[in-house]
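Q: How would the structure tokens look for this protein?
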Amino acid sequence: MKFPSKVTTYKDSSISLFPVILSKLEKEPMTPSELYKKVKKKVSGIQEYIEILDCLYALQKIKLEEGVLYYVG
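A: Here is the predicted structure in token form.
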């Protein structure tokens, strides 16, 4: 996971992708694979995508129920 620092700008960090993923889930719940298909051009790979989902889950911004991701407002 890329964090903002002196070397990595906020725009290039993984944290900058949080709003992108949350905005997709805010519109409609979807499975992790459906969501990945919609954002795969913005993330550097599946590893970064999974790390972002882990962080959002830990921050209680998303939840996973029966294989479907939901936005938690």
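Residues 46-58 form the longest helix (13 residues).

DSSP finds three helices and two strands in the chain.

Upvote if useful.
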